[in-house]
Amino acid sequence: MQLKDKVAIVTGGGAGVGQAIAIRYAEEGARVVVAEILSARGKSTADAIQKAGGEALFVQTDVSAEEQVKEMAQAAIRKFGHIDILVNNAAILLINEDTRAHELTTDTWDRTINTNLRGYWLCAKYTIPYMLQKGGGSIIFIASRTGMRGFARIAAYSASKGGVFALMRSMASDYARDGIRVNAIVPGTLDTPMNAEEFSDPEARNKYIPRIPAGRLGVATDIAGMAVFLASEESSFCIGGVYLVDGGADLG
Question: Can you say whether the dihedral through the CA atoms of 49, 190, 205, 193 is positive or negative?
């Protein structure tokens, strides 16, 4: 087991990529803090881990709320004594509200930036001190191709994910000599709850698949293997990296 005795916090751990990573981490021996805003989802993931013989703690957390993030980190320490891994995954895409810049409402902009970028910073802010005390750790940002290119009609989401890359690079430089490795995973087009509304239309699914050399949409578990690698000692020389898990989408 690659993560035996490690303690991992996974935000947005109640569904999709976060859930897949949380469950895989537990299978690899980690004790997992499932941070999730929706109680039913978060408890479901924690219960599944425990039923499989793993250790998990659910902490209801809105990652945009500073006091809740602070309590999340403290709850991890109270329960498990230290923090080794943070997976910054919780994010929102307000698909029916996000649009072109001049058409965006301030509320849509603020909600998106506060969750997708401020949330990543807050979770890092309150877990890094514990990693420094322990002498190291791994922080993984779940990023997006929208942050590399900027996609049409989702200006707020694209901006938030662009900020994720800049924050990751800055933190990777700042904390490498402290033994804290910071990296990003960039998923391809995934069939997950975030995209459920769009992919409920078969035509939408068929629009994407021909562009992917792997011949299919990704699923959440496709991301979990890379997340294990970046959390483990096998990636000890990986710092500030951007790792695409996209079925070859950039080749299509």
Answer: positive
Query: How many structural domains compose the chain?
Result: 1
Q: What is the CATH number of the domain that holds 55?
A: 3.40.50.720
User: Tokens 């951007």 correspond to what residue?
Assistant: 242
Domain membership of residue 1 (yes or no) is: no
Q: Note whether 187 and 161 are within 8 A (CB).
A: no
Distance CA 89, CA 243 (A): 15
One-letter amino acid of 94: L
Encoding tokens for residue 176? 């490498």
Q: Which residues are known catalytic residues?
A: 157
157: CB partners within 8 A, 6+ apart: 93, 94, 98, 112, 116, 144, 146, 151
> Is the distance from CB of 201 to CB of 239 less than 8 angstroms?
no
Q: How far apart are CA 221 and CA 151, in angstroms?
A: 25
- Of 205, 165, 168, the C-alpha closest to 189 is 205
In a domain, 177, yes or no: yes
The token pair at 38 is 């929706």
- What's the domain range around 174? 7-251
Query: Would you say residue 2 lies in a domain?
Result: no
Secondary structure (DSSP) of 69-80: HHHHHHHHHHHH
Which parts of the chain sit beneath pLDDT 50? none
- 120-164 confidence digits (pLDDT tens): 999 999 999 999 999 999 999 999 999 999 999 999 999 999 999
